[in-house]
Structures are given as structure tokens and as C-alpha cells.
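User: Could you write out the 3D structure of this protein bound to S-adenosylmethionine? I've included everything you need below.
Assistant: Certainly. Input first, then the structure.
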Amino acid sequence: MITIINSEEAPPIKEEDLSALNKFSIEKGINLSFEWKEGQFWLHSDRTEERAIGIEIDRELARHEEFFKKSSLQKELLARAVGVKGPYRPKVLDLTAGLLGDGLLLLSFGCEVWATERHPVIRFLIESALQNAHHPRIKSFHFIPGDALKALKEPPDVDVFYFDPMFEDANQKSSPKKEMRIFRNVVGSDLDAQLVFKEALLLKPKRLVIKRPRHSISLSEKPSVEYIGKSTRYDVYFSV
Ligand SMILES: C[S@@+](CC[C@H](N)C(=O)[O-])C[C@H]1O[C@@H](n2cnc3c(N)ncnc32)[C@H](O)[C@@H]1O
């Protein structure tokens, strides 16, 4: 079932979105409750004590902008992994947009970003957030709804493919952040990650960057370089 809170103020939802959301809700037996608030839709958790999730694009970009006034980009592992250096800013295809955490970070580095997302709920949140975004950097963001495998058939002309699939982490000791719990509950695991990885590698991008939990195994063969942070690792595969 789908519930819309503040439905009198909310814009009508496109037929195709409604039918995809309904299909997901019925197939997975998950009730979806969206609230229209501050100009965009937010997804409520099934637990009343948890905050709704939504993507605050302008706020996030402004926050990054402030941060990078004082901190060098070269301290950012993601920037180094995708190859940001001096004035060079790679063009990136983010194959796993999710809640745009990494996509917005890449944008704030000055990269032009294309991003794909296949999950109907997350796609809906992204499209709603994009309608509500006015920050100048958002002009360099191009959303491609649908599966990454489809986008890889005719990829945009980019330097880097970036891939951050959902994983089952056997080593994870702590429980995920609340926001991640709702997200995980809805999205589940990306069981075809190996396939996407292989297809992406076959296209020989300058770099293929895979985000992994620090202690987990690589998706496939050994990467050319690893950038290791406190909890995250970026496996980088060079093609040239
Ligand atoms: C771990 S999350 C990505 C988080 C994102 N990097 C961020 O910082 O917010 C993985 C997301 O990629 C999406 N995804 C996974 N495989 C995909 C594929 N083959 N095509 C499109 N989207 C995919 C999932 O639906 C999920 O929303």
C-alpha cells in the first residue's frame, strides 16, 4: 500500500511512477509512506521513532562547498580514487546513485556526473529531490533512471565508472545507521554486482572505481590501486 502524507499540497505523481511503486510494495509486502514536505517527497520508516529519508541536494552541496573552502580535495579519498588532480576533473558515471551521497560529493569536487538508479522508490526520491534543487552545481548532474547494465550499453562519454553496490557484509559488527536501515530494508542486496562490474570493466574506462567496506574482499580480480580509509576502501582498476 502507498500512503501520501500532505497529499492536498503534493503534486500529482506520474502514472508510471505510481504503478512501479505499487508493484514494488505488493511484491515485497512493504508499505510505503511518503510525505510531501519542504518541496519534495520523503520516505517514512515503518518505525515511527525514525526520521523520514529524503535527499536535500541544495543543503548537501552548500555543506560540501563550505567544507572544501577549508579542506583540500586531495585529502578526500574519493577525489583521489576518481583521479581529481590539480585542475583536472574527470567526468564520472555513477552506476549506483542511491541517496546521491557520493554523486553530490563528486559534483562538489567540480566533476560532471551522470548517475543511474534502478530501484523505483529511490528513483522516485531522486527525481523529486532534483525538482527541488537550485544550486548552480546541479547543472552538471545528469540523471539516467533505470539499470546500470542498460546505461552501459550506450554510456555517456566519461572517464570514470563509479560503482557502490549494496552488499551483505558478514564482517559488519555494528548495526547500520538508522537511515541506512530504512534504505537497506527497501533496497535489499545487489546480487548482480559481479555482472555489472564485469560489463563495466569490458568497456575499458580510464578508471573503474569500486567502493567496498574496508575489510571486505574485492569484487573480483585484484585492483590496480586501493585507497583505504577508516571504514571504506576504494578499489581502482585502470584500463590505460
Ligand atoms: C549502496 S547504494 C549507493 C549509495 C550511493 N553511492 C550514495 O552515496 O548514496 C546502492 C544503490 O545502487 C542501486 N543499484 C545497484 N545496482 C544497480 C544497477 N545495476 N543499476 C542501477 N542501480 C543500481 C541500488 O538500488 C541502490 O540504491
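The longest strand covers residues 207-213.
User: Perfect, thank you.
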